[in-house]
Amino acid sequence: MTASINDVARAAGVSASTVSRALRGRPGVSDEVRSQIAAVAAQLGYTASRSASSLASGRTYTIGVLVPYVGRWFFGTVLDAAEKVFSAAGYDVLLYNLGSAETRKRFFTRLPVRKRVDAVLSLLIPDDAESAALRSLGVPLATTVGGTRPGFTVVGIDDRAGTESAVRHLVNLGHRRIGMISGASGPLHWTTPIERRNAYLDVLADAGIEHDPALEADGDYTVEGGERAMTELLAASRPPTAVFAQSDEMAMGALRALRRHRLKVPEDVSVVGFDDHELADVVGLTTVAQPVAEQGAEAARLLLRQLDDPDAAPPAGQVQMPIRLVLRETTAPPRPRGPQ
Amino acid sequence: MTASINDVARAAGVSASTVSRALRGRPGVSDEVRSQIAAVAAQLGYTASRSASSLASGRTYTIGVLVPYVGRWFFGTVLDAAEKVFSAAGYDVLLYNLGSAETRKRFFTRLPVRKRVDAVLSLLIPDDAESAALRSLGVPLATTVGGTRPGFTVVGIDDRAGTESAVRHLVNLGHRRIGMISGASGPLHWTTPIERRNAYLDVLADAGIEHDPALEADGDYTVEGGERAMTELLAASRPPTAVFAQSDEMAMGALRALRRHRLKVPEDVSVVGFDDHELADVVGLTTVAQPVAEQGAEAARLLLRQLDDPDAAPPAGQVQMPIRLVLRETTAPPRPRGPQ
DNA sequence: CTGTTAGCGCCTTCAT
DNA sequence: ATGAAGGCGCTAACAG
């Protein structure tokens, strides 16, 4: 079997407490003894059992991360960045993939992270009951999605401003029939689609453009959904000359639909996305860039800070990250139209 | 504080042992008492402490998953699928993002998973010393990348066959100057690029095409690398009329480079990728499809099987998953050439 | 600076 | 079918 703390203590001729103190860099051990213990431990290949030390100390040195879809670029990127920050600080990451309603429900009723994590980073937006469940864990909480909520440190972007810059860009190019592909079919507590929609409506109103409900379609935040949504929009009696997609993945789906319909981008239809997906540049997509990895890293850092100093108040409101419109090749003025 | 097993025992008027047995579905508890205990536990919001039960039983119900880059589509997708299988079986996933040499080294020297996991799924290829370190954990091991290695259950694809189908496709279209973008710059124990290269060379030889070293470039498995590599190939005295990229991400980089050089795909240059990335279809990329999520799920299942029945021998050799060439729009016969 | 004494919360014999 | 005792490996007071 693997060596225990007592094996090390015996081999080093000291007590287990001293080994514990020495190995964790706590004061109260002479340098000589400390280095001696370190040598013995290394030689025996000793690593403290996390279970045992968690049980005794109450600290787990692990962070629970809740994700809706690990395979999706946005979440994978946030997770990647957050994990790096956590592991650099000596914390392990327990991953929970809660994409399906069933998995999600089981997670929140059984709450397997109870007594298992020192903090939770949620990349999904908990509803009120779920938030309460998380708060009942009594550990620091953070999220990189959705709006402010009690008990959570939230890192995010200004969805309104991002959307406005995208839609304004289309308006400025001269478009009047501007469609939107949203991702509204998810759970209601997911406010991002709503904020983006409101911003879209506001810009249209501002520009004196009447809103046409036939120019909105749901793309479910997936490539396939985006393709379906674009196909729907094209079937309208007066199809849009430009489309704002609430995510790059949906925008790419839209591009595919347009190509299948033999429509040219941007000559026939302009497309703007949201996120600046790693492949947006490959397809030349104009989009609203947000610092995805940075949001994960920042949320992780804020959580660690609260762990280091439990008295420090978590940042109030939302920590806002910068966004910017990246102009590429999928947007242009509308085709000149005949007399109307 | 949260309820402990003794709180439940007291509230139910039984002993802690009985609560333990009842909640874990072990025999020796009358149905009546069992359901009574379940009710009390639910009412108290009791969940057993994982640390305590691991310590007492030696089982952790946790799987360690090692990943080089969570944000990369391939790994994110494998991880996503594996996590679903594990969590459905009641296991938690501890994620280790070992992209940098430094992180990786620290992981294998400190081995933080020791005494913390019941099994390990590695999505990176451990070298001999690293494999030995993992074996020393004394738990089942599996991987979805690289070749067969002692002590590991390996799920993968036939890289040779996949590459052959891609390169043969180009040969059959009439191409003679076929370039390759590889991902060879990684660590040496990463055999995939080598296998694919050998298969590429074999197909050329078979077709009586002389190999031109100027037609090979390293794309580092990234979009940017693929773009650089393609740019390099185009600078050759006699550039290729077709290119096989060892991954879709590099192929997409190549497409971007070609677009920047105002070359038409497939008219001027044909491109084939490898993976069938979720966005390959969006850009119309011809590619070798492999069941990525399925590989993660299958590896997870095989691990669980070994956990259920420790006596069962792990599958010998490699569990091979099917591949197939997906024809899309980036490949065509070469332009007819003048007399030569 | 170092050792001793108690648990942390649960599971596992062994009794009954 | 149930309860009592012991211990998993470590950390946290408390003594010296």
TrEMBL record, chains A, B:
User: Would the keyword Transcription regulation turn up in this protein's UniProt record?
Assistant: yes
Question: Gene3D superfamilies attached here?
Answer: 3.40.50.2300, lambda repressor-like DNA-binding domains (1.10.260.40)
Which domain of life does the protein's organism represent?
A: Bacteria
| Domain HTH lacI-type per the UniProt entry, residue ranges | 3-57
Question: What SMART domains does its record include?
Answer: HTH_LACI
Keywords assigned by UniProt, alphabetized: DNA-binding, Transcription, Transcription regulation
GO MF annotations in UniProt:
DNA-binding transcription factor activity; transcription cis-regulatory region binding
InterPro entries, sorted: HTH_LacI, LacI/GalR-like_sensor, Lambda_DNA-bd_dom_sf, Peripla_BP_I
The molecule here is called LacI family transcriptional regulator
Q: What organism does this protein naturally occur in?
A: Streptomyces aurantiogriseus
